[in-house]
Amino acid sequence: MLIPDPSLVVLIGPSGSGKSTFARKHFKPTEILSSDAFRAMISDDESDQHATPGAFELLHLTAAKRLQYSRLTVIDATNVKTEARRQCLDVARKYHLPAIAIVFQLDEATCVAQNQQRPDRQVPDQAIKRHIATLDQMVRQIQHEGFREIRVFRTAAEAETITIKRQRHDSWKRHLNGPFDLIGDVHGCLPELLELLTKLGYGLEQIPEADGGKVWEITPPDQRQLLFVGDLVDRGPDTPGVLRLVRHAIRQGKALSVRGNHDDKLQRKLSGRDVNISSGLADSLEQISREPIGFAEEMRGFLDSLPLHLVFDGGRLVVSHAGLKSELHGRDSDRVRAFCLFGDTTGEYDQYGLPIRLNWAADYHGSATVVYGHVPTYQPQWVNKTLCIDTGCVFGGWLTAVRYPEMEMVSVRSHGKFADPKKPFMPTEESLPPT
Ligand code: GDP
Ligand code: MG
């Protein structure tokens, strides 16, 4: 079983079903928050039911602090009542982390027998009966409560044989500290990308790929790594060429890319989903149709592998297509996903048909530098510690890179205007970035 790390793991089951034994086997003592231990902490007696409200108050507070610090946390309590699980889910939701349910739905005889083996204390058989009756009513409901994943054990053997593997959240690149070259929205502008890479000191060589196509292989200067802020595709003249270059570089460990809203939509289209063909998607589909058989499926898989955001350098650098508020850095929820792809929007649209945006950057007071793209600006734009490097290459502007940690900008001029944005984008020579 794969457990996302960080996440909140909620054990659910009657007394004697083996929750604490399971927790001890698979998790560190500091990761396990057990209601018994919290009861003992405040009353010197782990079975003192009078201490239960206080014990849970402390347990939930501790869970909240651990999730705030992005620590995997296991709640070891019966959790058979809806209200108990709701409190767990609320904490996970507050910190934008997934909650995982592990349900011990063992039969009464087994729970009672196991409970009687316990050297320390025995819960009355009646209590176990009550837990089982409550849980039996709940197993269907649990599916709809908001857990990311639910695992149900129906026998002790099942619980005993399971192996657990932790999966670090895919934003987790804190150990990488560059130097990086971050690249703004490319949108299929391969010639400008090649020109920018050359200007940044990358070597370029065209080599054959397995499907008969050709790919540009890059040689970075001085162990630098490329980081793309997403929107690799759509509108521009060579989306397949850009996808090949970025995929090849990522495979070679020379680059990483987050997913932009255009990359996400193309991925959904290639997966057979019904999406609105607009904003340059038709160009990408037409270009992909001219590639060898199998290319579309390859790229569907590649686009699907792109993370929504990345956190580098011990948390000092965050890369996300549409930016990211500090409380969402390194976190994993629907809200994080929507923010990374589309930014903070009001749900309403302006006179150009574009979503009305909330100015998250103006309110940003985080310590990490956030580099992003998504909305073209005439100049690379610093607002607090956020930097937008989408300078509208595909709309006739520039393709911009920023070097990290130096924070030097490098731009190349667009070779033409490949699409008309919904909102006029008319850079003048004065408004363009320095080279
Ligand atoms: P909890 O009340 O759900 O936390 O259950 P515990 O983990 O404390 O387990 C209750 C008793 O059952 C303990 O004495 C365990 O040693 C025993 N136990 C737990 N899991 C198993 C199992 O898989 N097989 C057997 N035979 N005993 C188990
Ligand atoms: Mg226990």
In short:
The chain is α/β, with parallel strands linked by helices and 435 residues long. The protein contains 13 helices and 22 strands.
> How far is the first residue's CA from the last residue's CA?
51 Å
In the residues, how many domains can be counted?
2
Helix fraction?
Answer: 25-40%
Overall 3D shape: elongated
Fraction of residues in β-strands: 15-25%
Give the name of the CATH superfamily of the largest domain: Metallo-dependent phosphatases
How many strands in all?
Answer: 22
CATH architecture of the largest domain: 4-Layer Sandwich
Q: Biggest sheet: strands side by side, in what order?
A: 8-14-15-18-20-19
The largest sheet, given as strand count, sense and whether it forms a barrel, is: 6 strands, mixed
CATH class of the largest domain reads Alpha Beta
Average pLDDT over all residues: 95
Helix count, DSSP H or I runs of 4 or more residues? 13
Key attributes of the depicted protein:
435 residues, alpha/beta, Rossmann fold, 2 domains, six-stranded mixed sheet, five-stranded parallel sheet, binds magnesium ion
Question: What is the element layout, followed by pairings?
Answer:
Blueprint: E1 2-5, E2 8-12, H1 19-26, E3 32-34, H2 35-43, H3 52-68, E4 73-76, H4 82-94, E5 99-104, H5 108-117, H6 125-142, E6 149-153, H7 156-161, E7 165-168, E8 172-173, E9 180-183, H8 190-199, E10 203-208, E11 214-219, E12 225-228, H9 239-251, E13 255-257, H10 261-270, H11 281-289, H12 295-304, E14 309-312, E15 317-320, H13 334-342, E16 345-349, E17 355-357, E18 369-372, E19 381-383, E20 386-388, E21 398-404, E22 408-413
Parallel strand pairs: 1-7, 2-4, 2-5, 3-4, 5-6, 8-14, 9-12, 12-13, 15-18, 18-20
Antiparallel strand pairs: 9-21, 10-11, 14-15, 16-17, 19-20, 21-22
This protein binds guanosine-5'-diphosphate (GDP) and magnesium ion (MG).
Guanosine-5'-diphosphate (GDP) binds next to helix 1, helix 5 and helix 7.
